[in-house]
Amino acid sequence: MRLQNRVALITGGAKGIGRGCVERFLAEGARVAAVDIDVAAGNRLVEELKGKGELVFFECNVGKRPAVENAVAQTVKHFGQIDILVNNAGINRPNDFLKMPEEDFDLVIQTNLKSVFLFGQAVGRHMVERGKGGAIVNMASTSVIITMGNIAAYAASKGGISSITKAMALNLAPHGIRVNAVGPGTIITELTKRLMDDPVQSKKIMSRTPLGRFGTPADVAAVIFFLASDDAAYVTGQTIYIDGGRTGMNYTVPGSD
User: Fold this and answer.
1) Long-range contacts of 107-112 (CB under 8 A, 24+ apart)
2) What is the pLDDT of residue 209?
3) What is the dihedral of CA 232, 189, 58, 167, to 10 degrees?
4) Is 241 among the catalytic positions?
5) Looking at CB atoms within 10 Å, which of 13, 45, 108, 246 has the fewest?
6) How far is CA 183 from CA 38, 211, 247, in A?
7) Helices H, strands E: what count in the chain?
8) Is 139 helix (H, G, I), strand (E, B) or coil?
9) pLDDT in tens, 126-170
10) In whole angstroms, what is the distance from residue 179 CA to residue 168 CA?
């Protein structure tokens, strides 16, 4: 239990990768505040993980400053501190670039990227005032490096997250606060279920994934745990990809026999 006496706030914590982080952090002894806009899923999370550790759930629209500041204040009120922030909340609105509604673009940027700014500020200020350092892990994506034509808003938001992670790391390093990001590949979640269920798309993804399988929330949570732990004490400003080798893959050049 390497996170005993530490408090983690995890956004988008009710499902998918966020839930995987909640489960891993509880198993490592952390006290956890999960925030999510999906109240029903949040309540299920608390019920299903009862007895696994100290967990609370707060409803939050992560792209709105008043809601973010309330979630942070509620967490501090309940636990007295925040040592770790995981900015996991995210959505996607796939569409042809020329047909994408402005409202969809704005919503994706607000939910994915602006939330990192808002929570980063609110929790960062708390950490600085507390004076005991901390760790922040943001959720980027392999879309920072490789992307698709129908996810312009998502790719833009994730590229922004990788960049803001570096800026946050530089700003907060003097206060002993480390900031990193992870870039998952295709992970088994509700967001990717449609891809998993399509044999053609599934085969295409596997043909570009050297390790030959989809990732799991637990795979991502393990790396996020590492970045939040003391084992990563000299790591900051980095984006680490968890993609089964996909971003390192290119066309195969025929060799000589």
Assistant:
1) 107/63, 108/153, 108/154, 108/156, 108/157, 109/153, 109/156, 109/157, 109/160, 110/63, 111/62, 111/63, 111/157, 112/139, 112/154, 112/157, 112/158, 112/161
2) 93
3) 40
4) no
5) 246
6) 24, 16, 10
7) 9, 7
8) strand
9) 999 999 999 999 999 999 999 989 999 999 999 999 999 999 999
10) 6
Overall pTM surpassing 0.85 (yes/no):
yes
Where residue 194 falls among pLDDT bands split at 50, 70, 90? confident
pLDDT of residue 118: 99
List the domains of the chain with CATH numbers.
7-244 (3.40.50.720)
* Catalytic-labelled residue, pool 154, 234, 241, 251: 154
| C-beta of residue 243 within 8 angstroms of C-beta of residue 209 | yes
Give, as one character, the DSSP assignment of residue 1.
-
Q: What is the DSSP string of 19-67?
A: HHHHHHHHHTT-EEEEEES-HHHHHHHHHHTTTSS-EEEEE--TT-HHH
CB 181 within 8 A of CB 239: yes
